[in-house]
TrEMBL record:
GO terms for molecular function: pyridoxal phosphate binding. It comes from Luminiphilus syltensis NOR5-1B. Keywords: Pyridoxal phosphate. The keyword Amino-acid biosynthesis does not apply. Its cofactor is pyridoxal 5'-phosphate. Belongs to the pyridoxal phosphate-binding protein YggS/PROSC family. Pyridoxal 5'-phosphate (PLP)-binding protein, which is involved in PLP homeostasis. It comes from the Bacteria. The modification N6-(pyridoxal phosphate)lysine is found at K38. This is Pyridoxal phosphate homeostasis protein. The lineage of its organism: Bacteria, Pseudomonadati, Pseudomonadota, Gammaproteobacteria, Cellvibrionales. Residues 11-228 form the Alanine racemase N-terminal domain. The keyword Oxidoreductase does not apply.
Length: 229
């Protein structure tokens, strides 16, 4: 895919976000587009940046490290959105601006301890297994309040909100149900953690449903860069 195609795709996805926000009575500026660049080469990320994108999501640390270094001149914002292993936290803490996939206290503590002070706090989202799928990562909804309270107290990181990857669904009405549940969960934390402001939810196939339920970050890969090879 060349730079012109990527620029066209960026425009199309931005239009989708704007239309979905308008339909929900929301300001499109309140919904950030996170370009999921996992497995895509640095040249495609550069083209997307030239088309106006600033934030990029990566799942695979080794692949991400190479791109982050090669594209350092662009001053991009990097989000780690994949499964977290304990032996990778030091590198993630030193290279990323956000981590969306924290689902246990051990990982949060390691990120807290290993975040270089000079970089400022690392933005954190707790990944919630909102659909209750046995095979999927994420803390169960009932465990979120206790984990959130502890993570929010750790130095070096800032708990920003919640992330989820619901079970795939094609019916727009059914798509909204887990997103609504995640929003209600975030709202339930507002009394004790009023600073939480992030709902990272919605991808290429369901971003309209996510925006209708309050998404503040949508994670889009396929509709920007094409399907994974």
């Amino acid at each position: 895919m060349d730079a012109r195609e990527i620029a066209t795709n960026v425009s199309k996805v931005r239009d989708r976000i704007a239309d979905a926000a308008a339909a929900a009575g929301r300001d499109p500026e309140c919904v950030a587009l996170l370009a999921v660049s996992k497995t895509k080469p640095a040249a495609m990320v550069r083209a997307a940046a030239e088309a106006g994108l600033h934030a990029f999501g990566e799942n695979y640390l080794q692949d991400a490290e190479t791109k982050i270094e090669e594209l350092r001149d662009l001053g991009l914002e990097w989000h780690f959105i994949g499964p977290l292993q304990s032996n990778k936290t030091r590198t993630i803490a030193a290279n990323f601006d956000w981590v969306h996939s924290v689902d246990r206290l051990k990982i949060a503590r390691r990120l807290s301890e290993q975040r270089p002070e000079a970089l400022g706090p690392l933005n954190i989202c707790l990944q919630v297994n909102i659909s209750g799928e046995p095979s999927k990562s994420g803390v169960l909804p009932g465990q979120v309040p206790d984990l959130a309270a502890t993570v929010a107290s750790l130095p070096g990181i800032t708990l920003r909100g919640l992330m989820a990857i619901p079970a795939p669904e094609t019916d727009p009405v059914k798509q909204r149900q887990p997103f609504a549940a995640l929003r209600h969960l975030l709202e339930s934390l507002s009394d004790s953690l009023p600073h939480l402001d992030t709902l990272s939810m919605g991808m290429s196939s369901d971003l309209e449903a996510a925006i209708a339920e309050g998404a503040t970050i949508v994670r889009v890969g396929t509709d920007l860069f094409g399907a994974r090879q």
